[in-house]
Amino acid sequence: MCLDCGCAPKDHHHHHDHDHRHEHGKGKTLTIEEDLLGKNNRLAAANRARFAAHRLLVLNLVSSPGSGKTSILERTLSDLKNVLRFAVLEGDQQTANDAERIAATGVPAHQINTGAGCHLDAHMVGHGVDHFDLAACDILMIENVGNLVCPAGFDLGEDHKVAVLSITEGEDKPLKYPQMFQAADLLLINKLDLLPHLRFDLEKCREFARRVNPRLEIIELSCENGEGMERWYAWLREQVGKKKNQKP
Amino acid sequence: MHEVAITRSIIDICEETARRRGATTVRGVTVEIGELSGVVPEAVEFCFEACGKGTVLEGAALVIQRIPGRGRCNACGEEFPMDNQTFTCPACGDFPPRRVSGEELRVKEMEID
Lengths: 248, 113
Fold this sequence. Notes:
Chain A is of the alpha/beta class and 248 residues long. Helix content of chain A is 32%, strand content 21%.
């Protein structure tokens, strides 16, 4: 049974309608004033408290499908798994392909299939992490469903959203999908090795991303030839260091 | 279509409230959706009928109140209408402006028998 989320039959109540009736026609009007994301936000706060107790760095990777999130993870895990302890939650509508790819690196991985769902939510993540020994982890990577729209609004309890944009997608994605880039703290611009073959204006892409979110950090990299990966690893090590120094 | 998840949470909140008040029929529900919330009111309307089937909300009227987006400049204090493409203050050019309204996603009230 789940203590936090109320998926058990007799759950706790969070609702607080007031005894505040007005007559409207024949019916009775109840004032509710309840946030539609309230339940998700409460569960995200519970996740965050649980992660903090383990001083665990949690990243929520968001992007359109095919930007290279899983490939970036594969290379990162292979390069850093002897230095940092990872666990990976994979979100996709269907298949366990990504979790299998991650598991092949030797890092604990668990697949969440959302079915028709277009994003992970805090409830799914809360149950997903039950598959890991969080005390034995430094970083939890949550690879969200590939989608530049819906995951932006759903807090999972992460420390940072990391957006991935590959240069095959076009430099104006931050302007077209501003909410996702506003919600992110770090942008990884991936597939840099393809730059000579594409009409992609890197400078413009950076400018568009910073117009939408001036405090966004940006790292350009290629998980194919390894260019720029060291900057990403340095960022990860820095964040883990900050986390370890935080009071739980 | 995260509007499916949003619509389900409208229904969850109403069902829970109706259960505790002993109401078997909900006549209508009023929801506030801000223009900067990333939720499309038309898509919620579309989902509402399908998601409401077999619940106390079957046949209930859905009223959506749209809350316009407004921003305030952190530098000069100017207040102005904003949408998802407003990244700078129209008066002084400073960015990013603070969102003062338009991110609402709330069940405001419901009418029961």
